[in-house]
Every structure is written in C-alpha cells, then in structure tokens.
Amino acid sequence: MRLFPRIAFAACLPLAVGAFAADAQTISGAQRGEIERIVREYLLKNPEVLQEAIAELEKRQAAAEAEKHKAAVKDNAQLLFNSPRHVVVGNPQGDVNFVEFFDYNCGYCKRALEDMMVLMKADPKLRVVLKEFPVLGPASVDAARVGVAVRMQDKTGKKYLEFHQKLLTGRGQVDRARALAAAREVGLDVARIERDMASEEARTSLEESMSLAEKLGLNGTPSYVIGQNVVVGAVGLEALRGKINESRCGKSVC
C-alpha cells in the first residue's frame, strides 16, 4: 500500500469511530467528543495498532486479489494454456504451466530471461509458454509482430527461442529492423516473415494476448501465470521456483 493510503487510513480511523458515535442516538455530543479524545490518545500512545491494522488490511487485499486472479485463470484456461497462437519452449507435456507475458523493450524482461532459462534447464517437467504483450509503444508492437511471424514459420519453437534470446540480450531499443535482423541471424526466411506480419493470424495473435492480459488484470511486464497463480513483475529466480513448486506439490519446496 502506498504512503498516502496509509496516512488516509490513519486519519480516517478516529473519524470513523466518531461517525459511529454520531449514528448512535443515545450518545450525546459531549460523550462523542470524549470517545474521540480517548481514541486519539490511545492511537498516539499505541501507533503500532495502526501498523497491525494496515498489515491485516494488506493481507486481506492480497488474498482477495489472489482469488480474483485464480478465477480469471480458470475462466481463461483454454486460451492461456492451449492456444495455437503462442509458443511452447519448455516440455509440451510438462506438469506445470509457466506462462510469461513479455515485451521485447522491457528491461525487467531482459533480466528475467536468465531466470526462465535456468528454470527450463533445471526442470525438465516445466511447460514454458511465451506470449507477446507489447505495452511499451509502437516499436514493441512492431517487434511483437515479427515475433508472431517467427512463430508462424518455426513450428518447433527452437528458432523462436533463439530469436527471443537475441532480442532480450541485445542493447538498445528493439524495433522492426532489429527484430527482422535477429530473425535473419537465426536462419529464418525474412521475406516470408514480412508477409506474415501483415496477416490476419498475426493481428489475431496479438489481440488474443492483449485480451487475455486485460482479463487477468495485467498491465506490465514481465507477468506470469504459474499453475493457477498470477505473478506480476520480475520477482526473481527463487520466487518463481517457489510458485512452480506450489503448483506441483502445494509447498514452496517439494
């Protein structure tokens, strides 16, 4: 919770007590004032009570958000895990789905790439799904279109993964030219990619990813769906591994 809501919460708590007192017809104005004075003095002497209340509020909000995400994952499971318009670079028959929504110009995605590669290498049962989610401007959209066209040409996902790594490990902004150059470097037919970029399939693929992200409440990259859980942000290798284990055995360490 940001600082302003915390301050607002602290400021409103005695007011809320006062409002309760105002609604009670049997309490006089003098009694209401005394209640407010007592509450104020108590909070000033015991400010940790506010911290405890805020911590409990944040805990409940996090739990509610997690349940909301799980419901959204369940409602959209078919497109999330089995769409023909994404790339599977892990074990297609794996026991845990690890879906990443990414943008090629996202600095955090660049750092998160290594986490994904380590997890794939260490966990042969991990099913890794990549979905373009270009949220950082026109250059990202153009690069994502190239990515979709690469997927359309490469049915195995191997060339796509090489392409993916090249773009996320390079320096500077990724745009159409950079993406096409990366496709050429991994041995793909660039003329075909340029044709496929303008296809209905390319447009539909990006629309599908954007729609899924909206339904899941995602607005930044990287964002993940691991099993039935949504994870937002570059949370690091151990946090991702913990979520994978939770999906697999119900514990952070299996």
Describe this structure in words.
The structure is a single chain. The protein has 254 residues and is of the alpha+beta class. The chain has two domains: 3-66; 77-249, Glutaredoxin (3-Layer(aba) Sandwich). Helices cover 65% and strands 9% of the residues. It contains eleven helices and five strands, in the order H-H-H-H-E-E-H-E-H-H-H-H-H-E-E-H. It has helices at residues 3-23, 29-45, 48-75, 77-82, 107-122, 138-153, 158-169, 176-185, 190-197, 200-216, 237-249; strands spanning 87-88, 96-102, 126-132, 223-226, 229-232. It has a five-stranded mixed β-sheet with strand order 1-3-2-4-5, with helices on both faces. Helix 6 (138-153) crosses helix 9. The longest helix has 28 residues, at 48-75.
Indicate the radius of gyration in whole angstroms: 25 Å
The topology string of helices and strands comes to: HHHHEEHEHHHHHEEH
Structural class: alpha+beta
Shape: elongated
The low-pLDDT segments are 1-12, 14-22
Q: Provide the helix percentage.
A: 55-70%
